[in-house]
Task: inverse folding
């Protein structure tokens, strides 16, 4: 089986190759620390060997639960925020048909998401949509106390119980949370929901290969065994046994750190397929939350091409030269569609007649790469042979491992997120949450 391929050659007109390869010791040491658990944040390293240690029993349990939700429900609401939904949405969007959700005769339930915002319009419109639907809920929160998710779940649970009764609702709700701590664990125990555990040593943004990602992905009809298989193969390739020059995670970590110290402070993740939009959203969280601390860290941004070439293309080509791009490229499209010939040729497109749409997309990709390099944008390239569960599994693990190595090279703890608490504290103070009396007084003085 082929692997996804990382190509960093196009960065070397901007940074010296020997400087990147000079990271060998640092990157290998970082990888070793991840393996041995001797670096910062080492109580959150469960993801490192997660793919190869997922038990058959857990996979069967996830699959059986997914099957029973699939049988009972036409719509599944995945309630979660950040690491508790982005991985699932990334994989589901990447591997589902673009218009599946509009089909009347459906193989798979419609997957919708909640608990990732506090928009009253969104929640009210979701409630209206669900009114005449047979729906189920997968409620995901490691802490079990996240406001956005808890709020959405309270609304959804109330609605489901009204629509089908408490007893039936209990069969259509699954909670994924900590083994013993948090309000969601307590609630799930009391209500008798089916539950899955998020391992203590796996943080939210690294949890896509736990039930957090695997259950919704299985419910959406995607082969989770293939996804895991891809991740297992990448776990091996990115391990400490692999020499630096052959280890894609170590190389990617090295090249982005060298670009960073050379003033490339923003990384843009680029795709040429709308289905990959949420892979970028997942990646943004992974790198943003892991590296953006202590006043350091590359700012992770993302664009969908060619769409955004018509909005952000100008800035990328000629704006401040502080960016580099990492392109996720799919070698072979899954579908075949050729440009038809037209007798009149009024649109002047007959020069493309008989060519595949994917060929046109690839030429746009190549043309953009050359233009951006000419314009001062270093280009990194990740190629997936084809868009399927196996290669998405490889990609997810590759990015996770590279993120851990890169964070250690940057000398931060890639596995905490202390900065996320600041807004929560203020929000609770403003909402006058019990226990926040002092903060409420202090914040009111500032209004
Ligand atoms: O990566 C993280 O830890 C965060 O993005 C969390 O996943 C997110 O804040 C949701 O937290 P929880 O699962 O506790 O509701």
Result:
């Amino acid at each position: 089986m082929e692997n996804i391929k990382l190509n960093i050659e196009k960065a070397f007109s901007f940074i010296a190759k020997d400087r990147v390869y000079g990271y060998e010791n640092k990157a290998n040491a970082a990888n070793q620390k991840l393996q041995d658990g001797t670096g910062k944040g080492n109580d959150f390293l469960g993801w490192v060997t997660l793919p190869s240690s997922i038990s058959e029993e857990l996979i069967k349990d996830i699959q059986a639960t997914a099957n029973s939700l699939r049988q009972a429900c036409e719509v599944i609401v995945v309630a979660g925020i950040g690491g508790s939904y982005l991985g699932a949405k990334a994989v589901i969007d990447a591997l589902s048909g673009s218009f599946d959700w509009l089909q009347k005769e459906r193989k798979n339930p419609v997957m919708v998401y909640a608990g990732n915002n506090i928009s009253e319009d969104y929640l009210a419109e979701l409630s209206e949509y669900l009114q005449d639907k047979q729906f189920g809920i997968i409620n995901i929160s490691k802490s079990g106390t996240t406001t956005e998710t808890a709020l959405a779940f309270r609304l959804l649970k109330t609605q489901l119980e009204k629509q089908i009764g408490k007893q039936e609702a209990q069969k259509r709700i699954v909670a994924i949370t900590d083994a013993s701590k948090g309000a969601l664990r307590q609630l799930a125990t009391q209500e008798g929901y089916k539950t899955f555990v998020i391992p203590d040593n796996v943080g939210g943004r690294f949890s896509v290969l736990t039930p957090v990602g695997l259950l919704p992905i299985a419910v959406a009809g995607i082969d989770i065994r293939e996804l895991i298989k891809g991740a297992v193969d990448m776990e091996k390739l990115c391990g400490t046994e692999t020499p630096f020059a052959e280890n894609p995670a170590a190389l990617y970590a090295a090249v982005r750190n060298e670009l960073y110290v050379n003033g490339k402070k923003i990384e843009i993740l680029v795709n040429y397929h709308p289905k990959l939009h949420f892979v970028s959203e997942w990646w943004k969280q992974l790198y943003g939350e892991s590296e953006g601390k202590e006043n350091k860290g590359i700012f992770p941004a993302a664009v969908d091409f060619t769409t955004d070439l018509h909005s952000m293309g100008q800035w990328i080509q000629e704006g401040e030269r502080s960016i580099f791009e990492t392109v996720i490229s799919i070698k072979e499209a899954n579908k075949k569609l050729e440009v038809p010939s037209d007798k009149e040729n009024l649109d002047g497109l007959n020069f493309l007649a008989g060519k595949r749409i994917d060929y046109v997309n690839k030429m746009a990709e190549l043309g953009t790469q050359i233009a951006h390099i000419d314009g001062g944008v270093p280009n990194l390239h990740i190629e997936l042979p084809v868009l399927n569960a196996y290669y998405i599994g490889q990609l997810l693990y590759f990015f996770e491992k590279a993120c851990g190595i890169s964070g250690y090279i940057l000398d931060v703890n890639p596995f905490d997120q202390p900065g996320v608490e600041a807004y929560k504290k203020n929000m609770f103070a403003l909402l006058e949450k019990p226990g926040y009396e002092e903060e409420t007084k202090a914040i009111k003085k500032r209004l």
